Amino acid sequence: MTLLSRYTIKLFIKIYLIMLISMFSMYFIFDMVTNLDRLSNATPEDGKLIHTLLQYYGVRSLSLFNTLNAAVILLAAVATVSSMQSKNELIALHSMGAPPTQIAKPLILLAILLATLAALNREILLPRYQQALSRSAQNWNGEEKIPIRAKFDHRTDILIGGQHAIKSARTILNPRLHLHRPLGQFPRIIEAEVAEYIPASESQPAGYKLLNIVVPESLANYQSAKLNDDPVILTAMDEESLADNELFLVSNLPFELLVAQNNHYKFSSTKGLIELLQNPSLDYGAHLRVQLHARIVQPVLDITLLLLGLPFVLSGRNQNLIFSICSSFGAMVLFYGLVFTCHAIGSSGYAITPSLAAWLPLFVLIPATYFVTKHIRR
After folding, report:
1. Dihedral, CA atoms, 355, 357, 358, 363, nearest 10 degrees?
2. Dihedral, CA of residue 11, residue 17, residue 23 and residue 28, to nearest 10
3. For residue 196, what are the contacts with CB-CB under 8 A and spacing of at least 6?
4. pLDDT value at 325 more than 80
5. How far, CA to CA in Å, does 70 sit from each of 107, 163, 336, 360?
6. Which pLDDT tens digit goes with each residue over 39-93?
7. How far apart are CA 192 and CA 188, in angstroms?
8. pLDDT confidence of residue 159
9. How far apart are CA 129 and CA 115, in angstroms?
10. pLDDT of residue 92
């Protein structure tokens, strides 16, 4: 590694960390202005507020890194080259015959490394802390009652809803099931006092255990209901673990989907997104398919953003530093505008397919990057 490469890498890492930490600090300060009291109330009596703050903002640092990484890479690279240009170091390098690629090479290698770290963050760390990331400051412990969003199980044609939910216990208060097709002897509406979500295990499938059934009033003569020979609603007559006033609803509809927003899957891994699409109980439509393809394309897009904006500040012809920086910022705005527009069109499911919506930015940006690079070298 040459002396120039070591100097460039050291300067880039210094600026990158300063920018990233500054953005993190700004977010934490603004967020604590509104949420500090709520987090204080969520702190256990035998605990310390600092521990709650570290947990709450620690997991959100992973999400912020995933969101800001590509933009910070470009900003740090632009600041690195601008710093060298303000000290007349680029002039000395050009006079020695050093090409712009000699300066850009270590920056591109660092961008590839950081894009890889961001991909590992999306696939490993974010899914691991998905539950914590889905909790707000108002309900950090998950013990507060929150509204529930009724969702349709497309496999069984049952609408699962309720009055409230408690995240920590994964329970639904006053659950209400709407059967959109006849299932055994059961009425179209089933109500209970509590429903507990039970994940799948080797001995039983995933589903909801309904306690203290209100409607129907008596389950003495009710047998388990099946759909295409698959059990849907189990009763005490066929399931020994159930009491006389309990039911078990077999469903692949995850509890988190009932209490989270529609973008809850953004913290899922690529494997998790595929499993959601293959789940017969769910029907996400085009939006989730766009996100799945976008997850595959994202590391390449992160590097493409750097290659699109960096040539403007590396130009040997253009000595106007302010113009070079503004051009890089303009390239970044156009980059994100194109990506978000393609994703929005693909999510509608009408104009273009979800796969094309995710890959189209690359088809446009890679030729543009090549053109910008060749044009500025002239």
Report:
1. 110
2. -160
3. 169, 170, 171, 208, 209, 211
4. no
5. 13, 41, 10, 18
6. 888 777 777 888 888 889 999 999 999 999 999 999 999 998 888 777 776 666 6
7. 14
8. 93
9. 20
10. 67
Which CA distances in Å does 19 have to 101, 211, 268, 309, 359? Answer: 24, 53, 27, 17, 29
Q: Which residues pair with 248 in a beta bridge?
A: 209, 234
Kindly state the average pLDDT of the residues 160-173: 91
**Residue that has been written with the tokens 């590694």 in this structure:** 1
* Mean residue pLDDT across the chain: 86
For the chain, give every domain's residue range: 3-134+285-377, 146-259
CA–CA distance, 81 with 90 (Å, rounded to integer): 8
DSSP state letters, 35-62 = HHHHHHHHS-TTS-HHHHHHHHHHHHHH
Residue 46, burial from CB neighbour count under 10 angstroms (0-12, 13-18, 19+): exposed
Q: Torsion angle of alpha carbons 138, 139, 144, 146, nearest 10°?
A: 80
The strand pairing partners of 165, in sequence order, are 146, 172
**CA 295/CA 286 separation, integer angstroms:** 14
